[in-house]
Fold these 4 entries.
Entry 1:
Amino acid sequence: MFIGKTTRGLALLGLIVGGSATSRADTIRVEAEGLPVPLHRPGSSESEPIQVDPKVEASAVEPIGDGKFVLIAHDKASEFYAVETATGRIVGEPVTSDALPATTASGPKFEGMARDSKGNFYAIGSHSGKTDEERGQRAHLVRFRFRGDIRPGEVPKVDPASVVKFDAAASLRAALGKESGEVDRLKIEGLAIRELAGPDGKTARTQVVVGLREPTDLVRVFAAEIKDDQPAGSSLAFEKLFAFDAGRREGVQATLTSLLYVPDWRGFFVLTATEDKDNAFHGNTLWFLPDDAIPKAGPARPVRAHDFEVAMKAEGLADLPQPGKGASPTTVRLVVAFDNDAKSTHMPSRLQVLRVSRRDGRD
């Protein structure tokens, strides 16, 4: 299955082209590269050039290959979707494998994705639920790879032999118990990989970093080391990394929806959103917390970099490769996936690219 040309008609509908929004913090500048585009498939005729997808809820996102396409997690199924980054066009069949957790009425509810420098992808379930059975079906931390090299224009295939599942539930519940005691309200909504260099400058340790949406009073982030040869089914030992109060917007508490670690910036981007009891949204915030600002005790104080899209819910966040330039310590392109709870709100999931730069840096 090969990815074809960009869907016709998107520019006519004004889904890509638009003025960019700019937000400034003390050290960071954020610009939107066009408007959010809906996830869709090609339409059936010239008069209907696209068919907006009414079901996929984009709960997490990671780039594929050079970043022209991204992998989207749907929190109602174990399948992933390959999507054209610039247009939101879903391509080919779902990306899946029998080795991945099975889709059930309760699970796996993937709420975070990440990737490491070795080509591994990671996905994690919410670990939440009203019963032990529900929590068990959503208690998956999965590592997997794609078969062979990802060639330009080709939908990737999961290598079943690479799929490994780890236990995060017991350790996270214990760590949360020390932090707040509200272990029955644990709900994951963020996953990142942080690779730490040793004294010789080479990667010495790899951390799985997990964020919690609930309990809702704070953004809480925990980290555990993971090894390349980590035994399947083994438990990871999570410890608190940082926490902070994301505040309220229009009277609604902001909660964590995604985490991202950017090595060249030596820090975490944190995404928070606001959703009230009536499934209405009140805006999203992008935060940045450098490694050297993570406190040993007490609340963290991240930079509030960007407030955006008051009427949608941003849930996925990833950094895109920068063609022709390589990594940059001053500028990064982030892709945001808006979940929007299509089943309830009838608003499709969308994608948007943000260009984030240090205000005092130069490209």
Entry 2:
Amino acid sequence: MKELIIFNVIYKWKYLLAILRSKFTKTNEKSGIDKLVYVAREADKNWIFGTKVRKLSKFSTLNAIPYFHPKLRNLPNADGYYFIYPHYFCRAIRHNPQILNKKNIVMFTHAHYTTSYSKTHIAWCLNLADKVICLNSQVKKDLINIGIKSNKLEVIHIASDPNFFYAHDRNSGDVGFCSNFGERKNPELVYQIIKHMPEKHFHIFGKNWEKFEKFNLLNNFSNFTYHNNKAYTEFPKLYSNIDTFVSPSILEGGPVPVLEAMLSNCVPVASKTGFCPDIIDHGDNGYLFEIDADYKEVISLIKKADLLKTNIRETALPYSWENCSKKIDNLFLSLQS
């Protein structure tokens, strides 16, 4: 009730005003899709969101361009807009009401609700979009539960680059993690796995792990190497040094590093969050565990991963940026009146 009151009093009138303004905005009468804009913030250029809009627009056949703006204003004129994050669509409506006369597709990675962007707020705005892309099946169920119309929801798994990440022979026995430090990345489980598996060497690719309260203990383990804040260009080489990739997160939309590791022919051992249950066939091309699993369960799966002979890369090749972009193109084309 509180979030509904906050939305109605502080935010809803702004959207109603934008909708009204859109009614008086002159638009072309054509019904086709000849130009798309992939939208992100200026701050995203060197982050994963920036990579996503550049890659997806690059492979689009619908004259797509990436567009970055610090406050998501002054969007170029186009027939359709793709927003890489739901909050961006909400903000863009208020500053660019003319987009409500065009086709809008929004990517929903994972839930991140705040006082400003509550479930009520996000659901109301996303129902103004033409389509909402869910990165996994669970997200679709969650969005239906908060009131988003099911006919607006499409599941399309996010992608990676098979030309950037290359296969390697699994022969080192090493294990890797890839993430920035954060509680939803399940750092305690990471620590316990490394502590209780001294016969294995572990690597973390990421940053801010110094903030982990047990980092000094972790960093003193002889079977641990921290690759702090490495350039993304170094990631293919980093993945080539490990055989097994562990993703212990409590909440994810992807996670994209799972795909990167799979394209590098690493065996994924992942928690059942994000798209992992959709792309990993337990026992065939990797292993899955519950998000509340203890370190003993995960260690047993890491040992099983050593014995798996599957060509993991082959199972991940369908999840390329090119294939993902084509699916989005088709979604826009399906919206033509």
Entry 3:
Amino acid sequence: MNTPYERTISSLEAEQGYFLILKNQLRLFPKVGSTFSLTNGHMKQQAMIESYRCECQGPDKPHEHYFVRWAGLAKGDHLIVSRSLRDQQLFSISIEE
């Protein structure tokens, strides 16, 4: 089964040019740090899951946030990322305003 990843973009994601991937959804993507192809229509670019340390839940609860850089997102955009059934390193992204 090819479960898509869906997310509504926050103002911070739009400003910084990335979309977050929730920790419990990482299994849908390649390993953190490995590259994969992300297509949007006829455009294809290399992408990578990156992370940064955060203490948004307090200093005694440090953790990681995972993200993919993607320019041109706006607050409120709804994105859907799906893995290709033929190629495990190929994903498509669609963005609905």
Entry 4:
Amino acid sequence: MAYWNLTKSLTKGEAVYDTIVSYSPGLFFFQMPDGHVFNVESTQYTTMTEAVPPYCERISFSPNQTTQKIPIYKTDLIRGENENYPAGTLLSFWSAIKPDGSKLVQAMNYLPQLNTIDTHSGEVVAYRKKGGPGYSILQSDAKTFDRYYICVQADDKYIYAPYWGKEQWDGHGSLPEINEIHVFDWDGNLCYKLTADRSFFVASLDPVRNRLYSRDWNTDDIYYLDLNEL
């Protein structure tokens, strides 16, 4: 892993790296304001029915490098009973970090649920849609499941999570139009349900212009949603 100095690289016309560290990052990887790095490990598959649950790491790249592991689940091994969906798949998620580095949010794919993680204390708080499915899906023998959150972005005030809430598509042909975006505060309150006139299958937040960008995966068009009215 390298710290890439963009300013010096542009000045010299070549890639300049301040620090190079031998480390294997996980699924999501965030630079913290205090210089630490927050690494989010995905579920580690062992078999179709067993998986090591995801966890986080707070990494210091000081001369005396230290790593603090932050568990998300209270168990070391998750077991499922579905032969079509591995246990690890049903726990998959997207992550985003609060710009001040104090919290991380996970938006789950197969549960209508957000998890917030305090990056300093390690406290985990889960927020789930009332009446929505829970972890009992791990014991389900269903051949298909609903997909809920497709990705997640965040700023210091809000969490933005495009939402589907319907049966998983088969992966063939055009993607479905996912135009509902749930906007939460960092206490897990659902503040807005936005309905866009375009699909936000994957979203990227521009905190300078306060825009939520996306790309039409069927046409490659780029478009954005202006968030200044929130």
